[in-house]
Specification:
single chain; alpha+beta; two-stranded antiparallel ribbon
C-alpha cells in the first residue's frame, strides 16, 4: 500500500512499507527526514503537531516573615489552555501550490527515496586510509630488547671511521633505514645502519654478541646474521 509522508519543506513523498522508521532524503529538495511507521498517520504539510500541556501546581505562600511576604508581587494564576500555533504563510503557500502527483510519478519517487536511504551501519573506512599489515613496524619484545628511539644513536657513532669506506652486509642492505641493537651479557646499545657497518668493519665483534634489527621480535647470534665478518679481539 505504501507510506505517505512529508519532508520538512512540505513535499509529499510516498515510500514502500518496509522502509518505515528509516531515514530518507527528499528527491525534490534533498532534505532528510524520518519515515513514519506504517500504522502512524503522517502529518500533512504545514500541520503542527499537538502541543503537550504540562499542568503546573498553583502557587501558594508558605509561612514565613509577614513583612517579607508583603513586599512580594502577587501570584498569578496559570492558564491550562494551550497556545494556538499559527501555520507560517510560506508553508500554506507551498501546500496550496503543490501539484497533483500521479501513481506513476509516486512509484518513481519511491524508487529514488529507496536508493537514497541513509544506512544505519557504521561508515566504511576508505581503502586509502586503511593501514596495510605489511606497513606496520614490528617492535622487538619489550622484556628482551629495549624500544628504539631516535635519541639512542649517539652522534659519535655516525662519525666513527667516517673516512673509511664501509663494507656491504646483506642483512643491513635489506632495509638500510632500520636500526640495529647489539647486546652482550645483557647490556647493549642501538646503532644506526651506517654506525653498524662501521662497527662491524672495526673488527670489535667477539662472536658472543647477539644482534636484533628494528623489525625483528628476537635477537640472533652475530655470526648467523653477518657471516661476512671475522672474529675480533674484544668489544
Amino acid at each position: 500500500m505504501g507510506i505517505v509522508s512529508f519532508c520538512p519543506n512540505g513535499h509529499r513523498v510516498k515510500v514502500k512499507d518496509h522502509l518505515a522508521g528509516r531515514k530518507g532524503i527528499c528527491p525534490r529538495c534533498g532534505s532528510r527526514f524520518r519515515i513514519p511507521a506504517a500504522a502512524q498517520p503522517a502529518l500533512a504539510a504545514g500541520t503542527a503537531a499537538p502541543v503537550a500541556v504540562a499542568l503546573m501546581p498553583a502557587a501558594r505562600i508558605v509561612s514565613f516573615d509577614a513583612v517579607l511576604a508583603a513586599g512580594l508581587p502577587p501570584a498569578l494564576a496559570l492558564s491550562a489552555e494551550p497556545v494556538k500555533q499559527e501555520r507560517p504563510a510560506q508553508i500554506e503557500q507551498a501546500a496550496a501550490a503543490q501539484p497533483q502527483v500521479t501513481p506513476e510519478v509516486e512509484e518513481q519517487v519511491a524508487a529514488a527515496v529507496e536508493q537514497a536511504i541513509v544506512p544505519d551501519a557504521q561508515a566504511v573506512v576508505p581503502a586509502e586510509h586503511s593501514v596495510a599489515p605489511a606497513a606496520q613496524a614490528v617492535v622487538p619484545a619489550e622484556d628482551a630488547w629495549p624500544a628504539f628511539e631516535h635519541g639512542d644513536v649517539p652522534a659519535a657513532e655516525v662519525e666513527l671511521l667516517a673516512d673509511h669506506e664501509c663494507s656491504t652486509y646483506a642483512a643491513i642492505e635489506q632495509d638500510p633505514q632500520l636500526p640495529w641493537y647489539v647486546a652482550i651479557d645483557g647490556a647493549g646499545r642501538w646503532l644506526a645502519a651506517d654506525a653498524m657497518r662501521q662497527w662491524l668493519d672495526s673488527g670489535q665483534a667477539t662472536g658472543d654478541e647477539q644482534v636484533c634489527r628494528g623489525d625483528w621480535k628476537s635477537g640472533k647470534k652475530i655470526y648467523e646474521v653477518f657471516p661476512e665478518i671475522n672474529p675480533g679481539a674484544g668489544w
